[in-house]
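Hi F.,

I've been meaning to write this up properly since the lab meeting, where we talked about keeping a consistent format for the predictions we share between groups. The idea is simple: the sequence comes first, exactly as it goes in, then the structure tokens exactly as they come out, then a line or two of notes. No screenshots and no reformatting. I'm using this chain as the first example so we have something concrete to point to.
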Amino acid sequence: MRPPCEVVVRRILPILRALVARELMERHGWRQRRIAEALGVTQPAVSTYLSLLEKGEVELEGLEEMAARIAEGLASGSLTLSDSVMEICSLCINLKSGGPLCSMHKREIPLLREEGCDICLRLFTAERERIEERDRVLKEMRRAIEMIERCPEFTRIMPEVRVNLVRALPGARSIYDVAGIPGRIVEVRGRAKAFMEPEFGSSRHMAGVLLAAMEIDSSVRAAINIKYDEAIHQALKQIGLTIGCFERGELPWRGEPPAAVGVKLVAERLRHLPDVVVDKGGYGIEPVSYLFGSTAIEVAEKAIQVAEEVSKAEVTGRTPS
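Output, unedited:
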């Protein structure tokens, strides 16, 4: 099992790094230590890369031009690290998809040529739509997180276990099809804050809750957990959300996480999935509300509405009704 990525790591990346290092030294006067910091490698590694250029010609056309662009961008400060990664990955995809790297790979493993291998071409074509969907989900998650972080009242509805927001891909089957927030949303100086970017597979618990809800209602794609108490219960009713509750003691044993089982139990009882499923908790288990919706933006808006309603009730000294 020798994928083309092995050829890239072994024969392409070292030469590209060497070319970038040479450009930075010869055209921009950088020393090896500074180059090492910019490339994210050690200074001895830079010296090793440069020695590769003394051994022969560059195997692939276009590498020298790319190295010059990257070096110029690094020297001027106009090229971010993510920009350079995108350039390299874009080149790699093109080289592997029926390009010279494909031929190089087949020369090293002749059986692939005999089999008429076109794996990379088929893979990138088939996965393009799914990759674009994953990108859309992550962008949507970031917008929802920004909304939550801008809400000054949001900490009022944050449980002790902290908040997580999850969004699933269409047809999601596992936690790796569900994006969440590593480390969750926490309270910092009286405001909600997410310290890490959303990523797929980062919340086993909330992903399980959302996947259970999706089995019941195919329109559901997102969920968020917030605190549960009487004030929040009244706020949920005030803004018109339907509510279903379960007690831990009534859950049947199904070999699944209790919250996911509770969601299914509530749906069976009501014959539909409500907007909110409440886990009333138990000994040592904090009560929590799970809000569902079709997008991360929608569930963030619902949670913000609840926070604002609870805060308004506290300010006016009344109980939401």
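Notes:
The chain has two domains: 4-117, 132-316.
The chain has a mean pLDDT of 90.

If this format works for you, I'll send the rest the same way.

G.
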